[in-house]
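Protocol step 4 of 5: obtain the predicted structure for the target chain.
Materials: sequence only (see below). No template structures provided, no constraints applied. The aim of this step is simply to have a reference model before the mutagenesis design in step 5. Sequence pasted as it appears in the construct record:
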Amino acid sequence: MTYPVGIRPASVATESELDALLAELKQAEDHATQSRKEAAKYSGGLIQGLALMKAETDDMSVAQLRLKFYSAKHGFPILSISPRDGGEKNAAPLGKVAGDKEGL
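Step 4 output (structure tokens):
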């Protein structure tokens, strides 16, 4: 029995690729710092809540870029899940479509 898997061998990134990732990471960190400074201007309420949400979203971007950098540096591939049929256009519906009167 054979189990073919569509993968390729992992390879370590080149210095120029790592430098490009570091530049992108530095830019994202600067953006996240600016977002935290903007959120600190407010003392509470909806505006500060939205500003803090933006800052946390920027921190998530930084975390993802760090994952990308270290994965490239050490040769660990970032696996992605992609549909076999190339998209959702041919996907079967998940359940029965209910009309307005059948919804409840």
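Step 4 remarks: The first helix runs from residue 15 to 40. The chain has a mean pLDDT of 83.
Proceed to step 5.
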